[in-house]
Write a structure and sequence with these properties.
496 residues; mainly alpha; 19 helices; 26% helix
Amino acid sequence: MRILIKLCRSRVALAVVLATLAVACASLVPRQGWDQGHGPVVPHRTFPADCSLCHVGGSWTEIRPDFEYDHEAETGVSLRGAHEHASCLRCHNDRGPVEQFAARGCGGCHVDVHRANLGKDCQDCHTETNWRPDAMIARHDRTRFPLVGAHVATACFRCHPGAQVGNFAGADPNCLTCHTQDLARVTVPDHQANGWTNDCERCHAPFGWTPARFLHPASFPLSAGHGGLRCGDCHTGGAFTGLSTDCASCHLGTYMSTREPQHAAAGFGTSCDDCHGTTTWSTANYRHPMSFPLNGAHSGQRCNVCHGSGVYAGLPSQCVDCHLDDYQRAQNPNHVASGFSTNCAQCHSTIHWGGGNFAHSQSFPLTAGHAGLQCAQCHTGGGFNAVSRECSSCHLDDYQATTDPNHAALGFGTSCDTCHSTTRWPGATFSHAFPVQSGRHAFACTECHQVPGNPSVFSCTHCHDHSQPEMADEHDEVGGYTWSSPACFQCHPTGN
């Protein structure tokens, strides 16, 4: 600065300075020259003279928005992948003819960071889509360390320090080669204090360093609710070996505080898995002794319903021990007055208390219509023993009221099951010695049995009105022939 001031003191010196500055400025951006800030000069010698084909009027550096150039049609070279969107100046500039650089392959434009140690065929690892070495990732699968998870996105030089110069040999596949600092930072739990300084893959996966996945021993599998816990929830003292697998070692406080039922007072064992599972702590499921299985309605009861006294061992198992009030209140029928047994299981089940189902004596099975009756319909006096099994004890009124045929007038027996069944009362079926159920003899009983009170008497001649003399002529060769209905039936049992 001092030199400049001294020079400016003289007019001659000042003129020299001004001339020098003018020359310098002219050399920076020559008239009608190219601003180096816009990139290298593009040779236009072979371009059309009409600049408006590419440029916007009034601006030498702005390209028309509708400008399109079919590179493959004009030059015979197709631009693919990232090359399609690259600036023209990246290849076409004042370095020289583009053919000269294209002849060198990828190295004509791309600086070889590997310093020719990997050869000139960049496409062995790279593609035109992006510079990322995707092909090398697939090739890595043939090594002892396939790239999966986060390792796929890791730069080569992170594991191969000499990658920039093509040195990929000798990389140690041990986790600690790259993850030593990660090991040192982990304090919950403290890996180094516990001696976990190798085999990171036992807990960690390349897809994510956290959360860790440790394969717990089969002697204590981490299932359901245990599976979502952090290591420190159980390994509170920092120890990871030799811990007790007893439930009470973690759940003793819960055991002591349980009130429904009181586990400690009832003398329950501390093996929580007798009733509880890892899926949910509440809604315990106790396997009741087979001497009193909890099925039907019993299975949904809370323990305190039966063990309200807090006693869980030595309780009586008879129905009446819990259901005496039900037994005494029953009125249809009155169990007490009828002298029913207090063994409720004879008629009732644990599925449904109402609608008892009594296994009737096999000497009088309750089939069909009898099966749907109420006990009191037959046991009208309240007694359930020494009740007659005769049909007429219940159906005498039906017997006496029947007129088609008149059972009482014809002297029919009162054993109704001779003709009737429990399935359907009307439409009786009598096993007749003579085939009268079909054909011309399908008559009512009184058509043939015309003597009231004596069904053994029947008549054929009143319907088959053959004259006695004519029949005598036809039977003159029949020995012992007589004009009587029993004689007719003796020779003609089928009516023929």
